[in-house]
Amino acid sequence: MKHTSKRQSRGRGLPMALKRVQAPLGVITVESKEGSGSTFRAFLPVAAATNPNPEVRAFEALELAENDTALIVDDDPLLRDIARIVLNHLGFAVLEAQDGLEAIEVFKYYRNNIRFVLCDIIMPRMDGWETLFALRQLAPHLPVILSSGDDRAKVMAVTHCEPPQVFLGKPYGLSELRAAVGQALRSDRQHKITDF
Question: Model confidence over 50-65: pLDDT tens digits?
Answer without folding.
Answer: 444 444 444 555 555 5
